[in-house]
Structure formats: C-alpha cells, structure tokens
C-alpha cells in the first residue's frame, strides 16, 4: 500500500509540474509526506554531477529537487567517477571526459547529459552501444545563448577600450589614458551562426556595426528567439558558408568564434586563417578552446598581427595562469563563465531536475533536452 501511495502521489506531482501549477505541485508533495511513505522501500533515482567545477549546476539542481526525496543528487571528484558511476541513473558530465572505459562502468546508467550544449567530451558511440541515451540542453530557451552573446560583447569592448591598460592607469593615478576604440562602424564576423550567433547579432545591431556570418546551411528564417522568428537579412549584412571563412576573416575588424568542438572544427583558426585577418583585428572565442590553434594565436599576438584576444574557453581547462599567452597585455581570459548566469543555470537546473523526475516516473521521453543518439 505504501508503494502504491508513493507512485500515485509522485505521478500527480509530475502532472502538476508539467502544467506549471506550483501550488498544486506542493500539495501533491505534501500528501506524499503525510502518508509517511518509506523511501527506503522505494527506488531512488540517483543523479551524478562530475567534478567540482561549475558548482552551481549541482547546487541549483539540489535546491530545485529539495522536496523530492526520491531523487538524490551527488557530486564527486573527477578521479572517483569511474569507481562510483555504476551506482547512478543519470550522469551530468560538465567538463569530465566520458570515454568508453568510464562508460563501461556505468552499469545502471540510463542517460548521460551535459549541463549545456557541449558534448565533445562524451564518447557517444560507446554510450549508444551500451544502450545509454546522450543528451544536451538546447541553448535557445535556457538563457545560455543570450548569456554567451553578452560575454562576447563584454570581451570585445574590454579589448577595444584596453582593459589592462585602464587598470594600470587607475593604479598610477593617470587620467585620460589609454585611448581606446569603439564598435561604431566595425565589421564583425560571426563564425558559426547558431543560437549564440543569432543572439549576438541581435545585440550587436544597436552598436551600428556591419555583421557578416558563416553557417554550414541557411534556411529561410533564422532560429527563433523567445518564440519569434527573424529574417536573416534583419540580422546579417552578408552571409556565407564554411568555405567562405577565410574570405570573411579578411574583411573583419573583429572575429567572434561561436563554433562547437568537432573533428571538423579542431584548429579552424590556424595560421592560414589568422594571416588572412586584418592587421590589428581582434579575435574572440566563446565556443571551445580547441577551435583555435594555440601556436598560431600566440605567435601572431607576439608579432602584432593580432590586435587582441578575448577568450572564455581555453585549450586546457582550468588554464594555467602562468601560461605565456596570458602575460601579453592584449589578452583577456575569463574562467569559462559565459553561460554561468543566474538565469541560465537555474533554468538548466530545472531541466535536469524535471528529467530526473520524468525518469523516476518511468517515462521514456524527456521534456527540455535533445537526445543525440
């Protein structure tokens, strides 16, 4: 009888959640508690967050699920994942490399997912062979893409206004220096016009810039933002495909890289690419670190061909703060925080929590995520 009460109340909670009725959801949870269900006799769905980085991902998920004892959220050190992953139903990888060896230990795993969109660290084929679904959280509605677009603009403005030099001027009580530059009239190349690129273009428009962009394929209407479809011509002045990246790089004052990390995009921004850029042009990367060739970027910064580098993602993470590239005055790095905002993280925590509840209820499809295998 206890088991039946537990299942009845839990299914009611899921129904209420899907209807968005918070008050009735709380009542359903209250009934579950009042009936005195013995959770030790019921299956607990276990969610594993890998490693200590991006801590608010697990913190917000725990907070969201605090009234649901049938779901347990844990985070463990990266070095312990292989030994402990066999006890979990869902794994949120974050920046952990989920290779075939680790996946082979995941005997009870139903779902591997990213707290965001990047799945470059997951061996999707190995997961598929083991019958494990792999998923990402699409960035368009979570606030992730908007947050990343804002970070790109922050990095651009910080380089144009010479943030490091301004800090030195303040320290030495010097006014009126350094002389910076403005976005007005600049040509901005958005390389990879997905969700982030669309949000970036929308936010760049008021700066009176010319926007050029490349994308592997273009449809009639661009990705919807908050339920609204935009004509590409409203956001982009010139469009091209991947084969046009060198031509577009030669036109741009600012190149913003929004590409995902794949076998095809590794090292896209190499010496050939940078050598075609205008002398003094700025390079921004909010995609993945490996899309940029480190040696090419470092050498062109030292030679003065690149006017500045702004990155939120690095070649290895956490990045060595003593790395020579960070000693250059025209380099700004942020600690992979482009998408780390209250709005995006709370939204994605809700998605993870809802998926865990759906899995616990025995549902075979999940709301809010995109299965890739």
From TrEMBL:
Q: What is the lineage of its organism?
A: Eukaryota, Viridiplantae, Streptophyta, Embryophyta, Tracheophyta
Q: Which InterPro entries match?
A: D-isomer_2_OHA_DH_cat_dom, D-isomer_DH_CS, D-isomer_DH_NAD-bd, NAD(P)-bd_dom_sf
UniProtKB keywords: Oxidoreductase
Gene3D superfamilies for the chain: NAD(P)-binding Rossmann-like Domain
Molecular function (GO) terms for this protein are: oxidoreductase activity
Q: Answer whether the UniProt record assigns the keyword Lipoprotein to this protein.
A: no
Residue span, D-isomer specific 2-hydroxyacid dehydrogenase catalytic domain: 61-350
Q: Does the keyword Oxidoreductase apply?
A: yes
Family note? Belongs to the D-isomer specific 2-hydroxyacid dehydrogenase family.
Q: Where is the D-isomer specific 2-hydroxyacid dehydrogenase NAD-binding domain?
A: 154-338
Q: Pfam families given for it?
A: 2-Hacid_dh (PF00389), 2-Hacid_dh_C (PF02826)
* The protein, known as: Phosphoglycerate dehydrogenase
């Amino acid at each position: 009888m206890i088991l039946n009460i537990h299942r009845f109340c839990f299914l009611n909670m899921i129904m209420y959640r899907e209807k968005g009725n918070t008050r009735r959801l709380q009542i359903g949870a209250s009934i579950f508690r009042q009936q005195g269900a013995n959770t030790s006799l019921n299956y607990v769905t276990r969610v594993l967050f890998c490693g200590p980085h991006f801590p608010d991902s697990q913190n917000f998920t725990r907070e969201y699920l605090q009234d649901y004892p049938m779901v347990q959220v844990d985070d463990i050190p990266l070095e312990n994942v292989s030994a402990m992953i066999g006890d979990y139903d869902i794994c949120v990888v974050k920046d952990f490399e989920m290779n075939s060896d680790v996946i082979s230990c995941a005997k009870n795993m139903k779902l591997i997912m990213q707290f965001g969109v990047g799945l470059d660290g997951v061996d999707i084929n190995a997961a598929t062979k083991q019958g494990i679904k792999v998923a990402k959280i699409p960035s368009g509605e979570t606030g992730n893409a908007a947050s990343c677009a804002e970070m790109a603009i922050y990095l651009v403005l910080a380089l144009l206004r010479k943030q490091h030099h301004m800090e030195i001027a303040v320290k030495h009580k010097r006014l009126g220096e350094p002389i910076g530059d403005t976005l007005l009239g600049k040509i901005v190349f958005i390389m990879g016009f997905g969700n982030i690129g669309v949000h970036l273009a929308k936010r760049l428009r008021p700066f009176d810039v010319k926007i050029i962009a490349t994308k592997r394929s273009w449809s009639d209407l661009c990705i919807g933002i908050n339920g609204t479809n935009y004509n590409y011509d409203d956001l982009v002045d010139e469009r091209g495909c991947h084969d046009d990246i060198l031509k577009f790089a030669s036109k741009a004052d600012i190149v913003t890289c929004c590409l995902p990390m794949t076998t095809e995009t590794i090292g896209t921004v190499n010496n050939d690419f940078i050598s075609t850029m205008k002398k003094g042009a700025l390079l921004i990367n909010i995609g993945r670190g490996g899309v940029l060739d480190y040696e090419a970027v470092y050498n062109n910064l030292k030679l003065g061909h690149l006017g500045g580098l702004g990155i939120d993602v690095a070649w290895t993470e956490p990045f060595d703060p003593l790395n020579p590239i960070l000693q250059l005055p025209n380099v700004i790095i942020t600690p992979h925080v482009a998408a780390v905002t209250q709005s995006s993280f709370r939204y994605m925590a809700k998605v993870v929590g809802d998926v865990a509840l759906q899995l616990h209820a025995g549902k075979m499809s999940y709301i809010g995520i995109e299965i890739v295998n």
